[in-house]
Specification:
It holds the Pfam family DsrE. The chain is an alpha/beta fold. It contains four helices and five strands. Strand 1, helix 1 and strand 2 form a beta-alpha-beta unit. The chain is globular and about 40 Å long.
Length: 126
């Protein structure tokens, strides 16, 4: 089956984003495909490149980056939610040298999410 994951939980402070990460790993292990991971609402904090957890904490942003690279799964952030929460790329930043979008993440519109969701067998929101 082909899945699209929609993550609305923040990178830290709640369990949802980490559960989404674990779920994504389990899906691939069982032979399923993931065409996109879309972060919206507070979930856009997963793509904030300025998140620096303590050395003894799991770095979820980095884990998403590795996961995406290894499995060629795009990590998309909702543009509206990103701008509201201060996660910006060079196109959205008022000053182009002040961006904080983590490498491997892309800011996209809701249309991108919907296009992938229409092609998916399942859309799971965490």
């Amino acid at each position: 089956m082909n899945y699209v994951l929609a993550v609305k939980s923040p990178v830290y402070g709640k369990q949802g984003a980490f559960l989404a990460y674990q779920f994504a790993q389990a899906l691939l292990k069982k032979g399923h495909a993931i065409s996109q991971i879309f972060f919206f609402q507070d979930g856009v904090s997963n793509g904030n490149g300025l998140v620096y957890p303590a050395n003894d904490e799991f770095n979820l942003t980095q884990a998403w980056q590795v996961f995406s690279t290894q499995h060629h799964i795009p990590l998309h952030l909702c543009v509206a939610a990103s701008q509201r929460r201060g996660v910006v790329d060079v196109l959205a930043a008022k000053e182009t040298d002040k961006t904080n979008l983590a490498e491997g993440f892309e800011i996209t519109g809701l249309g991108e999410f919907m296009a992938m969701a229409l092609k998916a067998d399942r859309v799971v929101t965490l």
